[in-house]
């Protein structure tokens, strides 16, 4: 097997699983793939990646460089940004490059989600 076809899981601690879940599920629109009392897996249905959000074990310590970048390939819908903010997000500056090519929204724990207008290309 080669890594170019591998699936990806990003695991993060969170302080309030319900609040962070609302941000990614209701705000961003990811699907709930699996849930236990202290664990939520969220991702696009049929996608090759997902977030594993774990409550209670570690305290989140995000930095400005802890980015989850989604390459949308189109302008960022203001309604999406409004939904993320309504579900606990905060629009934050992310520097000249990312501010030019998208919008950055911090989740309730401070991890940053960049919605990029650029397309992913190899």
UniProtKB/TrEMBL annotation:
Classification via Pfam families: YycE-like_C, YycE-like_N
Chain ranges of the VOC domain: 2-118
Keywords for the protein's UniProt record, in alphabetical order: Dioxygenase, Lyase, Oxidoreductase
Matching InterPro entries: Glyas_Bleomycin-R_OHBP_Dase (IPR029068), VOC_core (IPR037523), YycE-like_C (IPR058997), YycE-like_N (IPR058998)
CDD domains to which the protein is assigned, alphabetical: VOC
GO molecular function annotations of the record: dioxygenase activity; lyase activity
Protein name: Catechol 2,3-dioxygenase-like lactoylglutathione lyase family enzyme
């Amino acid at each position: 097997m080669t890594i170019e076809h591998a699936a990806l899981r990003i695991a993060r601690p969170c302080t309030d699983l319900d609040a962070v879940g609302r941000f990614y599920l209701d705000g961003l629109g990811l699907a709930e793939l699996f849930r236990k009392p202290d664990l939520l897996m969220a991702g696009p249905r049929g996608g090759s990646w997902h977030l594993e959000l774990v409550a209670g074990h570690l305290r989140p310590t995000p930095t400005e460089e802890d980015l989850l970048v989604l390459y949308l390939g189109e302008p960022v819908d203001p309604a999406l940004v409004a939904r993320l903010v309504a579900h606990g997000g905060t629009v934050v500056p992310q520097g000249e490059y990312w501010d030019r090519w998208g919008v950055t929204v911090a989740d309730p724990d401070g991890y940053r989600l960049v919605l990029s207008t650029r397309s992913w290309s190899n």
